[in-house]
């Protein structure tokens, strides 16, 4: 499985790539609003610049999707990645919390809301993606590198989404359009929780964004260049998926 990806990425001896980096949400549908009133799309776009730079530094060609926030639809994102011949699709997002868990506060005269209980990143894969095994492997590699660099994951999403890898906060989310319509391995990354007032400030820090991007690019590179799916990852591509492999 990896050989097919790497072979496509290195075809013609032109070097590795491309990797597609998708900027989540749009100008018209900007996603969550942070504790201080900034849109998720703006956070996603800022982080994407650093991720693209970090991937370029490792020799990857990169196709940025939706940098202007005007993409037509959710399906257009994986379609654009496919048209670019991408070996891997990373969709960048920032997380929120359930409405019932929010608390009101006022920031610079604006009535807003927050939740300081949850913080941290998480990752999502779809078992309806045609290469779930490599999707899980790359999500694990990204999560492992982030934790090695001191970033803490959240397990908030484990309340609703089952785990593909609990240690690295990798969840199944089969219905996500950007993942299940992709024809290549795909991962959705939630960089942190915008409603947490302290974490919001960290997520706006360019130096921290660059460090996080470095970890993401390192994980992607390790996965696509050197990784092989473990048995449980390969099992995830079975059509029935009725029972996990026995130990």
UniProtKB/TrEMBL annotation:
Domain MurNAc-LAA, residue spans: 78-221
Keyword Nucleotide-binding: no
The organism's place on the tree of life at top rank: Bacteria
Example GO molecular function: N-acetylmuramoyl-L-alanine amidase activity
Catalytic reaction list: Hydrolyzes the link between N-acetylmuramoyl residues and L-amino acid residues in certain cell-wall glycopeptides
Entry's Gene Ontology cellular component terms: outer membrane-bounded periplasmic space
Keywords, ordered alphabetically: Hydrolase
Listed EC numbers: 3.5.1.28
Any single GO BP term: peptidoglycan catabolic process
Gene3D superfamilies membership: Zn-dependent exopeptidases (3.40.630.40)
Pfam families attached to this UniProt entry: Amidase_3
PANTHER family assigned: N-ACETYLMURAMOYL-L-ALANINE AMIDASE, N-ACETYLMURAMOYL-L-ALANINE AMIDASE AMIC
Protein's name according to its UniProt entry: N-acetylmuramoyl-L-alanine amidase
Organism for this UniProt entry: Thauera aminoaromatica
